[in-house]
Amino acid sequence: MFELAGEAAPGGSILGMILPFVLMFVVFYFLLIRPQQKKQKARTAMLSALKKGDKVVTIGGLHGTIVEITDDIVVLKVNDVTKLTFDRNSISHSVGSDT
Predict the structure, then answer these.
(1) Which CATH number does 51-97 carry?
(2) Domain residues of the chain, as ranges?
(3) Of 88, 11, 22, 28, which Cα lies nearest the Cα of 54?
(4) Considering only CA atoms, which of 70, 59, 68 is closest in space to residue 93?
């Protein structure tokens, strides 16, 4: 009689051990993974929407205006005579546009 009750308890305890891990994963998903995916989608959309004349800031903090742009290269005009070439992924955010 005690053995039957003892056999049922380990099966229930496995579920009791797994449930907190599942709940932790769900919490991590909604607090960490999902917001990061949204941020990445927004960044990808911003990078694909860049065009000539946009004022941008690089990851290093350099401010400039886009004068040439390809799929992976951006040429920024920093002042009247200085043009610098950057990787498109090095753009941190767009400030606005001249047009």
Answers:
(1) 2.30.30.30
(2) 1-49, 51-97
(3) 88
(4) 59
